Amino acid sequence: MNKPKILVVEDDRAVRNLITTTLETQNYQFHTAATGSESLLEAVSGRPDVILLDLGLPDMDGVEIIKKIRTWSNMPIIVVSARSEDKDKIDALDAGADDYLTKPFSVDELLARLRVALRRSRFDSQQAGEAASVFHNGDLTIDYAAGCVYREGQEIHLTPIEYKLLCLLAKNIGKVLTHNYILKEVWGSALPTDTPSLRVFMATLRKKIEKVPSQPQYIQTHVGIGYRMVRMEER
């Protein structure tokens, strides 16, 4: 079995060494880049399975790198940055990042986020290869062809908006979707006044798919950022 290839884009030598040492102990292959231009060259030539990306690079901002890569590839990108403001996280996620880890970080959390990204990448490949029309996650099943949703084999009746929300989260399983992204995909606009409506629909969706809505398993909230569907095997 081929070892996953990770591209580490980090200009701080100490942080870069910490990450690469961690990857080496877990038997990952890795390449490194200290600038934005190097990272783009490595992304094109090396085709890594996941990119770990710092935003504060000497020659260009990491968000611009994400935007450039997203014009030709859907490879998972995990931002690892000292920027901790919600706006920075939203900008990176809206540009196409899959996840956002704030420095300082624990090695265990970094590896966990990496495993999630690799699983999503494999899932995307399987979906593309099989042109799957049925989605399974734990006790939850979506039959895209029939437009039906089941929990533990029992059909759940969703409104059109709830169904769109669930399908959007399912097709991006493991990826954090910002409020703006969800609003644009489901409603076609992203006005600030629409966010309360999104929260209401998300609450009603949870009541229907979660066994204990107050302790959701499937849909994870990232406060101030958005939502993510969790793959049950992560638990």
UniProtKB/TrEMBL annotation:
The residues that make up the annotated DNA-binding region are 132-231
Domain named OmpR/PhoB-type is located at 132-231
Taking the record's annotation, the residue ranges forming a coiled coil are none
The protein's location, in the record's own words, is: Cytoplasm
* One CC-aspect GO term: cytosol
Q: Where is the Response regulatory domain?
A: 5-118
One GO MF annotation is: cis-regulatory region sequence-specific DNA binding
Q: From which residue to which does the signal peptide run?
A: none
The record's keywords, sorted A to Z, are: Cytoplasm, DNA-binding, Phosphoprotein, Transcription, Transcription regulation, Two-component regulatory system
Point out residues bearing the modification 4-aspartylphosphate. Answer: D54
- Give the chief site where it resides: cytoplasm
**Zinc-finger as a keyword?**
no
Purpose of the protein: May play the central regulatory role in sporulation. It may be an element of the effector pathway responsible for the activation of sporulation genes in response to nutritional stress. Spo0A may act in concert with spo0H (a sigma factor) to control the expression of some genes that are critical to the sporulation process.
What is the recorded name of this protein?
Stage 0 sporulation protein A homolog
Q: From which lineage does this chain's organism come? A: Bacteria, Bacillati, Bacillota, Clostridia, Christensenellales
